[in-house]
Amino acid sequence: MEQFEKLPSLVDELVTSFVPAAAVGTTTFGITQYSFWMYVAVIILAVLMVVFVRKQKATLVPQGRFVNAMEMCVDFVKNDMLKATVGATWRKHFPFIATVFFFVLINNLLGVIPGMRPGTGAIGTTAAIACCSFVYFIAVGIKKWGGWTYIKSLAPKGVAFPMNILVWVIEVFSTFLRLITLAVRLFCNMLAGHIVMGTFCILISIFVEPLLQSFSVTALTGAATSIIWLLILLIIYAVEILVAAIQAYVFALLSAVYVQLAEAGE
Questions:
Q1: What does the alpha-carbon distance between residue 9 and residue 12 come to, in Å, rounded to a whole number?
Q2: Which in 38, 131, 170, 253 has the greatest CB count within 10 A?
Q3: What is the rounded end-to-end Cα distance, in angstroms, of the chain?
Q4: What gap in Å lies between CA 184 and CA 233, rounded to an integer?
Q5: Are the C-beta atoms of 141 and 266 separated by less than 8 Å?
Q6: pLDDT tens across the length of the chain (266 residues)
Q7: pTM (2 decimals)?
């Protein structure tokens, strides 16, 4: 029971540790720990793409696990996200959707590594990515239909006045809500997963700590109990890796869906 009494304060410290803090400069004018790892993710993504393109051009037939794995990811974005959702115009939207997917994916996976703080773990970063997606699909709609036509298209045809005005207002609100849901969904999933993993790490440490301080049967029993928490942590860790990939997929897929809706005249 004494170990469990420490848990609330330790969890509070854990949650506080996820608050953005300045790594360089200040939080207002500087680089936070989340920004730092976001830049690392950008560098990793750039290196991966450069190496992939060079290796791909080196041979007519793709060779090597790295090239084949990257081609599988690219084909997944092309076929499962764009061709199946956007349709005939998939090619011109591929650069943006693929960039969003790989950027979010690498950031999410970095967050699984202990000690790292992924860019997607901060609401500012997820909001910025969501804003890019929001501006992109709005620009796609305006470019295809024209500004006024696109604005009017938010209200479906066939709705009588004045109900069409109410429907239009609801659709405008719904459109802006996409921006919020994209940002909040990604941020909350990443933050929640990290807190859960951190909590189980704390449970393991508070049961092992008495054994490290002095050997006793009670301390040994408590340390043995931590094996249960460790097994649960490993399961959660595997699930979190899966969640990192799923959230990148959901974010990119929704962006593709919004592009398709912006292009659809009906």
A1: 5
A2: 38
A3: 62
A4: 25
A5: no
A6: 555 566 666 666 766 776 767 666 665 666 888 888 899 999 999 999 999 988 888 777 777 888 888 999 999 999 988 998 888 889 999 999 999 999 999 999 998 887 788 888 888 899 999 999 999 999 998 998 888 878 877 777 776 777 778 888 888 898 899 999 999 999 999 888 888 888 877 777 776 665 556 655 565 566 666 777 778 888 888 888 999 999 999 999 999 999 998 888 55
A7: 0.86
Any idea how long the chain is? 266
**Structure-token pair, residue 202:** 């704390």
Angle 108-125-119 from CA coordinates, rounded to 5°: 35
Residue 226, burial from CB neighbour count under 10 angstroms (0-12, 13-18, 19+):
buried
DSSP state for residue 20 in the 8-state scheme: -
DSSP letter string, 103-140: HHHHHHHHHHSTT---GGGSHHHHHHHHHHHHHHHHHH
Residue with tokens 């040994």: 220
